[in-house]
């Protein structure tokens, strides 16, 4: 991540999802057939679990 902050990235993803009226957690079939990127909920979970290298 450019900022090295998973929290900032997660907050940005939440704002973008709200602004674009995105479904944060679409049904699995929709993701399978139409998804070209991970759903917002998955991106947020990954960002919140992110630990910069060297910080544990």
Question: What would you say this structure looks like, in words?
Answer:
This protein is an all-alpha fold and 56 residues long. The protein has one domain. The chain is built from three helices and no strands. It has helices at residues 6-19, 28-34, 40-49. Helix 1 (6-19) runs antiparallel to helix 3. The two termini are 16 Å apart.
Radius of gyration from the alpha-carbon trace, in angstroms: 13 Å
**Beta-strand percent range:** under 5%
Judged by helices, strands and strand pairing, the structural class is mainly alpha
Provide the number of structural domains.
1
Counted beta strands: 0
The string of secondary-structure elements, in order, is HHH
Largest beta-sheet characterization: none
Short description:
This protein is mainly α. It contains 3 helices and no strands. The protein has one domain (6-49).
List the helices and strands and how they pair.
Elements: H1 6-19, H2 28-34, H3 40-49
Keywords:
mainly alpha
């Amino acid at each position: 991540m450019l900022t090295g902050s998973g929290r900032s990235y997660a907050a940005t993803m939440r704002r973008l999802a709200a602004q674009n009226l995105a479904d944060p957690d679409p049904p699995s079939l929709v993701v399978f057939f139409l998804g070209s990127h991970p759903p917002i909920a998955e991106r947020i979970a990954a960002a919140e679990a992110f630990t910069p290298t060297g910080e544990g």
